[in-house]
Automatic annotation (TrEMBL):
The keyword Kinase does not apply. Keywords: Receptor. This is Toll/interleukin-1 receptor domain-containing protein. It comes from the Bacteria. It comes from Paenimyroides ceti. Pfam families: TIR_2. Residues 129-255 form the TIR domain. InterPro entries: TIR_dom (IPR000157), Toll_tir_struct_dom_sf (IPR035897).
């Protein structure tokens, strides 16, 4: 395998490095990318192992009182190569991180290993940096908790959709709600006692299943767990998770910090698996369309599809979750050029257009006339092979 995702580890915190390596391999498994694609490079091996032409992410987990000239040399070189450097510290950024990295955003070891793993995956562009979440809830039962979660997740760098805060006046409410749901990484569903009796909540649940969007279910203490026991991403809340007893006035109740931390961990750990699941759905439908038209296509290890033409060139099709945007086009072209030695005939982003608003679909059609990277709706999969 020629292409590697390079993680360069600088510093002396071996316990953290070993734990992160294990967590990252799980992340690659969740994304269904073979773990051989991840290359861990220690500081003593950088000169021989590092390749400037491939994706790289750097973690510094040391102390400025112990930093060596060699470590500074490596960090300076990585900064010149425009690779992201993430400082990881114990308690105090200013006391532990060298001045050379003072302008970088850092995280603490206590910020959660899963969160750090996802930052690395985002740096490799395997998870999108714009972390979108949709909150589904019944207003009469959990609006106060929904707003609390909205504020908490926004503080933790999620772009959160909640109907009372996220739709501008004058917008077509229901169309915009489905549009925003389509483009989210996950749905955080607040399953209160009467949740499933609400027509709107049931519609959101049905739409999520139709779009294969992953759902993290928060189950209220008085909610019948049997209705949701088959779900993979769920947390059963109990009285101690709230600052008020369940049967007091919960319209003013709040979740405790410990519960919020567990919810954040569940959301973080679910993102990669949901992305892979939605990509699988697109890959299966696209491959079936190719087979129906007697066209051979191949799924590559980085989760894109290739069709080899008679002239030896490749057509590349990239499954795109959510709504394709210009950044998808840019990143896709950059990644394919790094990975492939063969000449590329074309690159196309394939996506499911269900519930995406017409104005955006028209915009994508317009972009297809001008951009080198094209987009292809799921409803048009057969047409690309029948020409």
């Amino acid at each position: 395998m020629k292409y590697k995702y390079q993680l360069i580890l600088i510093g002396e915190n071996e316990e953290f490095f070993k734990a992160l390596e294990i967590e990252l391999k799980k992340g690659f498994d969740d994304l269904k990318i073979i773990s051989d694609a991840l290359k861990i490079i220690r500081e003593q091996d950088v000169d021989n192992e590092y390749s400037g032409g491939q994706a790289a992410f750097v973690i510094y987990a040391g102390h400025k009182n112990n930093i060596t000239g060699r470590q500074l040399e490596i960090l300076e070189k990585q900064k010149l190569d425009a690779n992201i450097i993430l400082p990881v510290y114990n308690k105090s950024f200013t006391e532990e991180i060298p001045d050379f990295l003072s302008n970088q955003n850092g995280v603490t070891y206590n910020d959660n290993l899963i969160k750090i793993k996802n930052i690395v995956l985002e740096g490799f562009e395997l998870l999108r940096k714009n972390r979108k979440l949709f909150i589904s809830y019944k207003r009469s039962e959990s609006s106060n908790i929904a707003i609390q979660l909205y504020e908490f997740l926004e503080r933790n760098n999620f772009d959160v959709f909640i109907d009372t805060h996220s739709i501008n006046k004058g917008e077509e409410f229901q169309e915009e709600l489905w549009h925003r749901m389509t483009d989210c990484d996950l749905i955080l569903m607040l399953n209160t006692k009467e949740f499933l009796k609400s027509d709107w909540c049931k519609q959101e649940l049905d739409k999520a299943h139709l779009k294969r969007i992953g759902i993290v279910h928060l189950l209220w203490p008085d909610c019948d767990f049997e209705d949701f026991s088959h779900l993979g991403y769920s947390k059963k809340l109990n009285d101690k998770d709230f600052d008020k007893p369940l049967f007091s006035d919960l319209t003013k109740g709040r979740l405790k910090e410990s519960a919020l931390s567990e919810i954040l961990n569940l959301v973080e750990s679910s993102r990669a698996r949901n992305l892979a699941s939605r990509q699988d759905w697109l890959i299966t439908d696209f491959t079936q369309a190719a087979n129906d038209n007697n066209i051979e296509v191949n799924l590559q290890y980085s989760r894109y599809i290739t069709q080899k033409l008679d002239n030896g060139k490749l057509k590349v099709f990239i499954p795109t979750v959510g709504i394709p945007q210009s950044i998808n086009c840019h990143n896709s072209q950059k990644l394919i050029k790094q990975i492939e030695d063969k000449e590329i005939e074309s690159i196309t982003l394939i996506f499911d257009e269900l519930s995406i608003r017409n104005y955006w679909l028209e915009h994508l059609d317009w972009l297809n006339e001008y951009l080198e990277i094209k987009t292809l709706k799921k409803s048009q999969f057969n047409t690309v092979f029948s020409k």
